[in-house]
């Protein structure tokens, strides 16, 4: 059975999808972009964008009763690999070094709203 996870503490979906779905103890979080849910506006600059994306992901995890420790897989999409080091340091600051998820990071030509970063995650209930 699938449960839709939704919170006002993360940006509302901008298309025909849910913020996240919980199925059989696995949480599938849709890609989050750097939209501030309080204002609905994009934040700019890879540092601020990465922090906002991680805060948005954290809000969805919290709504599902989870934390970053529950994350088993992350997919990171960057407009430029030149932003990798900065993104990676900020991303790591939100995680517990003893429970890093599996991950891939890829460069893409364009992202929704022309942002520099998008991250999706899969988490599992303990």
Automatic annotation (TrEMBL):
SUPFAM superfamilies: YjgF-like. InterPro entries: RidA, RutC-like_sf, YjgF/YER057c/UK114. Gene3D superfamilies: RutC-like. Transmembrane segments: none annotated. Belongs to the RutC family. This is RidA family protein. It comes from Chryseobacterium kimseyorum. The lineage of its organism: Bacteria, Pseudomonadati, Bacteroidota, Flavobacteriia, Flavobacteriales.
